[in-house]
Amino acid sequence: MKILVTGGAGFIGSAVIRHIIKNTQDSVVNVDKLTYAGNLESLVTVENNDRYAFEQVDICDRAELDRVFAEHQPDAVMHLAAESHV
Question: Hey, is 53 helix, strand or coil?
Answer without folding.
Answer: strand
